[in-house]
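[agent] plan:
  1. take the single chain provided in the ticket
  2. run structure prediction with default settings
  3. attach structure tokens to the ticket
  4. add a short note for the reviewer (M.T.)
[agent] executing step 1
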Amino acid sequence: MHDYFIRLGLSSFANFKTAVQKVQFSNILPKIFPILSWWPEVSRSTLRADLLAGLTGAVIVLPQGVAFAMIAGLPPIYGLYTAMVVPIVAAIFGSSKHMVSGPNTPISLVVFAAVSQLGATPGSPEFIAKALTITLLAGLIQLALGAGRMGTLVNFVSHVVVVGFTAGAAILIMESQAKHFLGLTIPSGKSFLQTLEAIGENISHTNLYAVGVGVFTLLLSILSKKYYPRLPNMLVALVGGALLAFVLGGETVGLKMVGEVPGRLPMPSMPDFSFHAMSELAQSAFAIALLGLIQSVAIARSIATKSQQMIDANQEFIGQGVSNIIGSFFSCYAGAGSFTRSGLNYEVGAKTPVSAIFASLILMLIVLFIAPLIAYLPIAGMAAAILLVAYNLIDFHFLKTVLKASKRQSVVLFITFLSTLFLDLENAVYIGVLFSLIFYLQRSSTPNVAVMSVDPDAHRRFIYLERKALLECPQLKVLRIDGSIFFGSVMHIAQEIRRLVDEEAPEVKNLLILAKGINFVDVAGAEWLALEARRWKEAGGGLYFAGLKLIAQDSLIRGGFKKEIGEDHFFVSKESALASIVPTLQDSICATCKFRIFNECEGKAGANALIKANKATTIASN
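[agent] step 2 finished; step 3 output follows
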């Protein structure tokens, strides 16, 4: 079977490869069509590996596509359509060699929430039309962001937001499937608390046959994955659940079935281009676009760390955008990178994006011949499979790590999680991102400003005074700033310097800033530094810098602030700074100083007298 597919693939792909190599005459074309850059890597050995990976992926996505479509409130076949079209387009226009796009759980849930809140009945022609429209809008937004080179946007969205949203979405999915698992009839579109209340009120009407099929499907999936990990555990479990439902009596005992699934390829479709439809779906479309991009780039980068591949986030934006745009015209709803299928695609040995194309083509063949059998899958069994998928979405290990490691990140996690449960899903994404940025700005605007001094027990290295009580020079204060000096942090840094120097050591006239931790200084920061340097100079001393990066001095140099401060006040290292500053300190104070914490102090006035006095004290004590 495998050899047949390989021979078939080689005969068709060999000609295409030759054509691609002839077309690849420009450096611009591979940027527009990334397939031109990786296609020369395709060979007989990669085709074999990609075909096996594609066959595995097609088998895995068959039950998943049906399940995801049900979560999205769409007929089952739409999940399979999305798994056919979206991966092919994303593979051609994306940058990752292993990521597989298509339907996934969080996006499906947001699509359902966004469309159902507009009053459309799940599964109805109106619902389907709005789902296709929101997919088109999300794709256009993604394409625009990619074309505008906005790929770095995902760097500002904390992974904590994604994990918190995904955990909340998993709870919502579990709740939405509980009624099917229990065999209850509860209207869709209710809030989280309303649905819980409805389940509690109707729990006495639980269909034990449905529960039995659901539990059997759940156990069979878990056990098959544990003892036979190479088998498609979800498919095995659903087949087992269908057989049990048949034995129990099927619909005669109240067991609902998935229903007829047409065995045909994706049909052309037309989103609603009216202004009213576009405007009412725009906000939700942006949330879907953002969530899809965050997930896709995160997945692509995660796998790239293992495969040693460089990922172009902008190209991934374009790939996801084009796949959703084209998909909306072929009966597909919004897709994104899939955690499960992408990881599996890499683990089973896929070499190029051809594996995703193979998976889609094989899925088409499967649907043409097997689609009618999907009608016999029990809804309770599907609910059990979806419950398991939702549970696996929750990253318990990462949740524990966040709760232990950071209070701020824990707050973002809880806010996103609770917003997902109790607010509109698209707003939950925005709220999580907003609070993540607020805490980031709060932290970056309050950099650490610490007093440093020399530790004689550690080869005279500078350490924080908070860690160890050390002597300080009475004429030179040494501070370390761990953070950039910009308009948002200037006030905090100024207050800290006034507190640590003016209030605690008002007699000090010189300040040395250890500046290796300063990444950049903006115009506002440069202006403040010039004013601060003037203040220290008027007090009879000076403001000095050691180790300030050249790139951080850009605004200082261009704005003339470095000259105003004094170019001789900037040093490459703290050693060169001390060698220049210490000799300029007041000899009268140095003559009576008993600390002598710097090596350079030995050349100052009074050093020899102090050494003699110390020797005399030592002899007298002996």
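[agent] step 4 note for reviewer: Residues 275-307 form the longest helix (33 residues).
[agent] ticket updated
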